[in-house]
Structures are given as structure tokens and as C-alpha cells.
Amino acid sequence: MKIDGTHYRSLWWNDDKDVLEIIDQRWLPHEFRVVPVATMQDFADAIYQMRVRGAPLIGATAAYGMALAMAEDPTDANMDAAWTFLEKTRPTAINLRWALDRCRAALRPVAEADRAAAALTLAHEIADEDVEINRRIGENGLALIHEIAARKPAGEPVRVLTHCNAGWLATVDWGTATSPMYHAHDAGVALHVWVDETRPRNQGALTAWELGKHGVPHTYITDNAGGHLMQHGMVDLVITGTDRTTRRGDVCNKIGTYLKALAARDNGVPFYVALPSPTIDWTVSDGVAEIPIEERNAQEITHVQGLTEDGRIGTVQVTPAGTDGGNPAFDVTPNRLVTGLITERGVCEASEEGLANLFPDFARAAE
């Protein structure tokens, strides 16, 4: 996507410097910083500290981390060590393990002398595949937005609510939940996006930054405003992303997604999830019981980062001294609350049958 007219991906390989470069998202939306990821510790820190975030982008980053590991030491032992080192950085998003497993399986048969080049080529392939997957998700989601637009009075926008940031910053490009929005806007569909702030890290500000740079009309709202808007007929559909989806269609996404799904069900608002196929965990059925939920540092709850009056990026404490903070980063929305899953192969119901019909090859392989 574009920032002030210049196209960017969230990460890219700098051929001149022979290094991966990323947009360090900790400083957005106030400051745009590009930084290199040059060591294995840099890769682990980038993922854990959320310099990169979003399941697809984490997976692509991990693939480049494996490429660096093979450039440093192409032995089986180092490959396994790199897998373990990167896999433990974040436990919930399945794309991390998916990418690491794919890299290890592809590289194991390759001669050690050829592994560095093969690993870098594979990382490029994973990044490019993510772009194409998300582009196709946008096309399939656009059809849903067109259907709603056709039923509305002329000129009245389709009003979409989204939670967290499932935009191009959370992927290599296009985004998942935002891809249908970008496609609709570019196709001339009148659109307005309600953007949840998404505490505690306020990733909604990243979504607002993205949409603003692309010219998509939007409004930034508190996390608790969505239900009110739905009650008053001000939301036509909800589209979120997902960090892990079970084979039966339970969706694990940023904390607060479950509450949006409950409000949508109570008010008859369609609730869709944009789902890249690498985010499906075919080994898990019951999301509530089986998906590990990351518990992050309590300081993300007790403190908030923002722009001060004198233009500096600063952090302030918002809680009383001595107050403990609990910080589960994700929750699980059961499939019964999900209207449909928007994938690169089409839209399906959130069920084991629905996913298996779209992805019979993956479903069979998992049996």
C-alpha cells in the first residue's frame, strides 16, 4: 500500500545491504521508522516486542530469520536451534510455527552448501504469497460489500466496524480485514470504517493511520462504543482478522473480538473474519480449550504511549501505584458467532465442513 504516494511493504529485503528491513511499528502512528533486522536476536526482539505484529507478518519475518540462521550456520543443529529460538517468541499466532515448519521441511533435504540461498529464496516466496493471498481476500470480501451497498440508498456509505489492526501493517501488503475495504474504496464504493482503539496497545491507531494515508473515510472510537453503534443501526458489517482459526472455525483474535461478535449477534449485524489459509490450525478443534492465550507484560495495561504536547513520544502511567495489571492478548470467538470466513479461495461458513470444502487439500493432509 502507499504512504504519501510511495508504495511500501511492511518488510522488504535490501539487496544493497544484504539485510531485511522493517517498519518499526512501535513508533506509529506518530513516527515512521525503518530499521534493519541483522541478527537472530534482532529477529526475536522484532517479533516479541511487536516491532512487527500481525500473524501473517510474524510468519514472514520468521522465514527471513531462518534464512539468516542458514547464512550463519547451515547445519541441521543450527536449523533446529533457530526454529526453537524463534518459535518461543509468541505462542498464539499460528503463522509463526507454520512458517518455521515450512522452512525446516523445505531446507532439510537441501545440501548444507546450498541452504543459505534456498532459505532466502523461500523467505521471498512466503512474503510474495502473503501479498497475493491478501489481495484475493480483498476481492472476495469486496463482493460482500457490493451486496450491502446495492441495498442502501444512493450515496449512503457502507459502514464497517473493525477491531485491532488487520491491515497491511499486519501482513506483508494489503492486509486481511482491510483488504476488502481498500478494494471497495478503490472501486468507488462509498465506505466508512469504524476503527476500534483496541487497548492496550491501541493498534486501532495503526488502522486509522493506514486508512488515512489511503484516503478511506474512518472514525476512531473507543473499544466499548461498538455495541452502541450496532444498537442504533450504524454498523452494516464487522470484519476482523485472526491470529489462529481452528478447523471447525473458532477464531482467535485480539482481545475484545469476542465481545464484538456477541454485540453483532444480538443486533443482527453480519460478523465476518478475513482468514488467510496459513492461519488455519488444522490440528485444533476447540479454540477456547486448546489455543494458548499469550499473557503480555502488565505495563502495557498500566502505561500508555503517546505524543506529548511538545511533540515527543512519551509514556505515562494511568493506574494507581501498586495496582496489578492483567493482560491476556487474545480471546476466542466460537464459530457459532461468525457469519462467514473470507479466504483467498472464497467465502465459507465458519464450520469444519465449510473450511474443508474450500481447502480439501489441507484438510486431507491434516487427517
Automatic annotation (TrEMBL):
Positions of substrate binding: 53-55, 90, 203, 253-254
Any single biological process term in GO: L-methionine salvage from methylthioadenosine
Matches recorded under SUPFAM superfamilies: NagB/RpiA/CoA transferase-like
Catalysed reactions, semicolon-separated: 5-(methylsulfanyl)-alpha-D-ribose 1-phosphate = 5-(methylsulfanyl)-D-ribulose 1-phosphate; 5-deoxy-alpha-D-ribose 1-phosphate = 5-deoxy-D-ribulose 1-phosphate
Active site (record annotation): 243
A GO molecular-function descriptor: S-methyl-5-thioribose-1-phosphate isomerase activity
Keywords in alphabetical order: Amino-acid biosynthesis, Isomerase, Methionine biosynthesis
Site (Transition state stabilizer): 164
Pfam families: IF-2B (PF01008)
Top-rank EC class of the record's enzyme: isomerase
Keyword DNA-binding: no
Record pathway: Amino-acid biosynthesis; L-methionine biosynthesis via salvage pathway; L-methionine from S-methyl-5-thio-alpha-D-ribose 1-phosphate: step 1/6
InterPro entries for the chain: IF-2B-related (IPR000649), IF-M1Pi (IPR005251), IF_2B-like_C (IPR042529), Initiation_fac_2B_a/b/d (IPR011559), M1Pi_N (IPR027363), NagB/RpiA_transferase-like (IPR037171)
EC number: 5.3.1.23
PANTHER family found in the cross-reference section: METHYLTHIORIBOSE-1-PHOSPHATE ISOMERASE
Cited function: Catalyzes the interconversion of methylthioribose-1-phosphate (MTR-1-P) into methylthioribulose-1-phosphate (MTRu-1-P). Also catalyzes the interconversion of 5-deoxyribose 1-phosphate and 5-deoxyribulose 1-phosphate. Part of a bifunctional DHAP-shunt salvage pathway for SAM by-products.
Family: Belongs to the EIF-2B alpha/beta/delta subunits family. MtnA subfamily.
Protein name: Methylthioribose-1-phosphate isomerase
Species, as recorded: Primorskyibacter flagellatus
Gene coding for it: mtnA
